[in-house]
Amino acid sequence: MESSKLIFLTSSPSVYSLFIVIGILLAASALISGSEVAFFSLSQVQLANLRKSNKPADKHILRLTENPKLLLATILMLNNTVNVGIVTISTFLSWELLGKNSENAIFIVSIVVTILLVFFGEILPKVYVTQYNLTFARWVARFFIVATRLMQPFATLLNRISGGIEQRLRRKNKKMAVSAKELEEAVEMTTAQATTEEEKEILKGIVKFGTKTVKQIMQTRLDIAAIDIETDFHELMDKINKWEYSRLPVYRNTIDSIEGILYVKDILPYLEESEKFRWQDLIRRNVLFVPDSKRIDDLFKDFQSKHVHIAIVVDEYGGTVGLVTMEDIIEEIVGEINDEFDNDVSLYKQIGENIYQFDAKISLIDFCKILETDHAIFEEAKGESESLGGLLLELFQYLPKTGEKITFQHFKFTVIAVTKKRIKTVRVEILPSSSTELKEFEPAK
Known about the structure:
- The structure is a single chain.
- By secondary structure, the protein is of the alpha+beta class.
- The chain has 14 helices and 13 strands.
- Helix 2 (13-40) packs antiparallel against helix 5.
């Protein structure tokens, strides 16, 4: 009897229409989720090209991205409305198929709807749109122009609520920022005339000490000198003599699997041993692993409490992204120290009036110090990058070829040398007039 009732219900036109409505809502959820990725993943280069375009869709995209809070609020409200509709209709459909008194109805709806929303409404569209963000943004731009107009009253209310919370947090952070700025100004005002510029810089370094993160000062993964744990003793000694470092990370198979740190001083009593000597027994296993977002003042305290002078920097997946030492931290206060982690070759040289040549691995902080410019001008363009090479990859959106040029603000960058994996050398020309946006892109000929 129950089976015949279920067959009757599934053949009912109303049930079919409910399935169709759920399918339409799932498609709408996918479109809205994909739109969020499309609009908010547009690069500076793509936006610069859109400004030069006369296509209506491109003008719509620029108009939407000029007010990101309104756009985001509209997307979130539409997405939540559609998802609530899917859940509501799915619950009603389960009642039609299984009966309102069925104990399994809610459980089944929760499992099925969650899977459908996560896969079809989130994962699938975002994976696709990530690769074709500009094409997708053009396709949905007109719809969101209309949607933002309709949702503006509600979006404005939400933005006011969130704005109040944001202002509270900003006020708290501003107090810290203003305090640091005031301290820096106080250094200039209160230091005696007999105080040297070097001493003033040390005092300023102390003021800014708590604002910097490990990512800004670390040696990158590509610059780490590390030893495979399977290396024999004679080969190990050759590398120690070649590199002249006092501490070496030891890894197994790949540098993402750090086993410990080898202190060269621990090997000194065994210099006459054969190539079969078990130098691996000398490895110190108490490795300090830190995230790249850790502040250097906190890391300094960790170095003191754990009695170590070196840490391996890891990403969210546990992979090795860099290395930081006590010397790197101290340099942020006292300036450059010629230790074993610094190359003798300078990271830059001046080759003409307002023309410089830089090693692309130089940090953006050092780059700005050398050219006496404000680090904040690269804040939006650099993304997660902290090096000059990383900034250029963000601007180009691909690995450029030798000779390619790009202009940002009042800097003209020319790629001088690249490898298969990274930019090596960059020529930088300081232009006489500044601009607030990307002005020029010239591919290699």
